[in-house]
Design a protein that fits this description.
The complex is a heterodimer of chains A (365) and B (259).
Chain A lengths: L41 H7 L4 H10 L25 H13 L16 H15 L37 H4 L2 H9 L28 H14 L16 H12 L5 H4 L5 H4 L10 H4 L2 H9 L1 H4 L10 E4 L2 E4 L14 H10 L3 H11 L6
Helix pairs in contact in A: 2-3, 4-7, 6-7, 8-15, 12-14
Chain B lengths: L1 H31 L16 E10 L14 H6 L11 E2 L5 E2 L2 E6 L13 E6 L2 E3 L2 E5 L4 E5 L5 E5 L9 E3 L6 E3 L5 E7 L7 E7 L4 E3 L5 E7 L2 E9 L3 E9 L4 E3 L2 E4 L1
Parallel strand pairs in B: 1-18, 1-19, 5-8, 7-13
Antiparallel strand pairs in B: 1-15, 2-3, 4-14, 4-16, 5-6, 8-11, 9-10, 9-12, 12-13, 16-17
């Protein structure tokens, strides 16, 4: 079995490790001519003018045993390559292929073959270009999209309808969530005619039916662009005390804070007028570090965003909410932005009910 | 170690020298303007020309729909009795258009014009921007007030100036902002209250005006010459005319938009 190389084509349990028995053909076209074994036909080939790679391959393919003519060989040394009875066009095709299987003409140090995340970036760009993500999304700084050329989207009311920027996406989202989203942008098996994250968008991201390999490459691409650590481990936020949870809930639903006026909460009546993603599911989708940076200065991270800046001001060593805060915040010495992020990332369904009750469903704007 | 300290103190000394030099240079520059112009110019009211006119709507007065402010109870209550109407087209009783922006588009001599030190106010009152259209010079302060007991955010969306979006909680201090480049016009919106809209015209010179309740505008102190004067309206677009003025001349230039 090993001698005849049966396991190279057939699956035989127990012989999975067996290699192929023929010569390696990967760089066959670059083999020095002296190493091609014309055997006893060498002089004849020179005389007749086919002492070249092309001549060698063509004669071999026409009759694989041609170079054994005139030789006496023991049984175990005899040629194992079968005669495939190839037609002339087929011989031409295979010869062309073999002649093209050549070594690179430049030294290996000229090739860019990084072993780290930079290879993920290269692999990712192939997928991004194949599906033309850049047609709708900003993938690198300074790029324009089709939406910049459409007259309707220059209107102030429609500018927020544009797809989100993907610059810094690796640092923003949880890669497991991103993989789920790319696989099914509606994030629902039942209601697929909507965008899973931004239900107020009039146009949703298409379902591209990526292969598993492409999904993996895309997720790794974004992670690599944002220099994310591998493997991804979600940062744990410090646990909230009950008072802190109450304070955060009061701030979110207070008149002084504009959060619930734009962000979805999952309540259909409230969400009918929402224009921003659902922050109650932020813990599955986002990363806490990014979320804190975002609420402090969205304009720097995404110029032209609908999220306002100036919500927090710096007070000595911590960030404090810039508007009126509920009375429960008196005497609280810690960072307000950090408190809100921890609240979002430790959200539970019970907390959602309490938040809705506190806000008053639909009202409280 | 000693070398490092010498290097650090040398760097500090140079930085401080740079600071002092810069300040000295900036103070006279602000007062004089660019050396080429020989000083920041002011409109010459005594010897300059005056252009007045009206912006007329040629056609039937369109019916403006009421703004749906139900999303914010306070805003709805503020307009109880008479629901606020869209300010896209405001036609005065004499058939002229309010909130049209008239400005000298081209033809002015190449000068630096003095920027007024007073600010122009943009107030958020009753969940609407008051006034609906303002004109400022590039570099002039805009005083943004929130007179409502509800949150607002101011989000101008310019093309050539820097875009910004700032939250203004109720009872907070006024925001003072400027735009550095000429841009006619910059739409301003509030992300929380999508019906709110206003426009800011930023001009590099002081020869502009916004039509009021009588639909008229006046531009004074214009140096003699030939100019392109433009009237801009939110819905009806722009209309350009050419005028030539002599010193101390009073010229009338009307604009008409087809409704």
């Amino acid at each position: 079995m090993r001698f005849y190389g049966c396991a190279a084509c057939h699956e035989i349990s127990g012989l999975e490790e067996e290699q192929r028995i023929g010569t390696e053909l990967t760089k066959e076209g670059s083999k020095p001519i002296e190493r091609l074994d014309f055997a006893l036909l060498g002089h004849k080939a020179e005389a007749e003018g086919w002492y070249t790679h092309k001549g060698f391959f063509e004669h071999k393919l026409e009759n694989p045993a041609v170079y054994d003519q005139g030789k006496e060989k023991a049984k175990q040394d005899r040629l194992k390559m079968p005669n495939f009875n190839l037609s002339k066009p087929e011989i031409d095709a295979v010869t062309t292929f073999l002649e093209g299987s050549v070594d690179a003409t430049v030294p290996p140090r000229y090739f860019y073959q990084p072993a780290d995340q930079r290879q993920d970036i290269i692999d990712g760009w192939w997928v991004v270009r194949k599906y033309n993500c850049m047609g709708c999304h900003r993938v690198h700084v300074g790029q324009t999209t089709t939406f910049d050329t459409l007259a309707r989207y220059q209107d102030p009311d429609w500018k927020d309808q544009k797809p989100p920027t993907l610059i810094g996406e690796g640092g923003r989202v949880n890669p497991d969530w991103l993989m789920r989203f790319l696989g099914n942008p509606s994030l629902s098996e039942t209601d697929t005619n909507r965008d899973g994250v931004r239900q107020y968008l009039k146009v949703r991201m298409p379902t591209f039916s990526f292969s598993n390999g492409e999904l993996r490459k895309l997720v790794r691409f974004f992670a690599a662009l944002s220099s994310q650590a591998e493997p991804f481990i979600q940062t744990k936020t410090d646990p909230l005390s009950d008072e802190e949870r109450t304070m955060a809930r009061q701030l979110f639903s207070s008149e002084g804070a504009p959060c619930l006026k734009c962000h979805m909460t999952g309540d259909p009546k409230h969400d009918a007028k929402a224009t921003a993603p659902n922050f109650t599911v932020a813990k599955d989708r986002l990363q806490p570090g990014w979320t804190k940076r975002w609420i402090l200065d969205p304009a720097t991270m995404s110029p032209g965003t609908a999220m306002p800046s100036g919500l927090f001001r710096h007070d000595e060593s911590r960030w404090v909410f810039a508007g009126p805060v509920p009375a429960s915040f008196n005497g609280y010495q810690k960072d307000h932005a950090d408190l809100l992020v921890r609240y979002m990332f430790q959200f539970t369904p019970e907390e959602l009910n309490r938040l809705r009750a506190s806000a008053g469903s639909g009202a409280g704007r | 170690m000693k070398k490092i300290w010498i290097g650090v103190s040398l760097a500090c000394a140079l930085t401080l020298a740079g600071c002092g030099g810069g300040e000295n240079k900036e103070a006279p520059k602000a007062a004089e303007g660019t050396p080429a112009a020989g000083g920041a110019a002011m409109p010459d009211e005594a010897n300059g020309a005056t252009v007045t006119g009206k912006v007329v709507l040629d056609g039937a007065k369109p019916v403006m729909k009421a703004l749906d402010m139900s999303a914010t109870p306070f805003c709805e209550r503020a307009h109880q009795g008479s629901a606020a109407k869209s300010e896209e087209v405001v036609v005065n009783s004499n058939g002229t258009l309010k909130n049209a922006f008239v400005w000298i588009k081209s033809g002015l001599p190449d000068k630096q014009w003095a920027v007024p030190t007073t600010a122009v106010t943009l107030d958020q009152n009753g969940c609407q921007y008051k006034p609906h259209v303002i004109g400022v010079m590039a570099g002039q302060q805009i005083d943004i007030k929130n007179s409502d007991p509800t949150n607002h955010n101011i989000h101008p969306q310019p093309q050539t100036n820097q875009e910004w979006n700032e939250s203004q909680p109720p009872g907070s201090a006024d925001k003072m902002q400027t735009f550095g480049r000429q841009e006619v016009m910059i739409p301003v919106k509030c992300n929380i209250h999508p019906w709110m809209r206003s426009y800011i015209g930023v001009v590099a010179h002081p020869f502009f005006a916004v039509t009021g309740d009588d639909g008229s505008f006046t531009i004074k102190g214009l140096p003699p010459g030939t100019y392109t004067i433009e009237a801009w309206h939110e819905k009806y677009g722009t209309s350009d005319q050419t005028i030539t003025v002599a010193p101390k001349e009073s010229k009338t230039q009307d604009f008409s938009f087809k409704g």
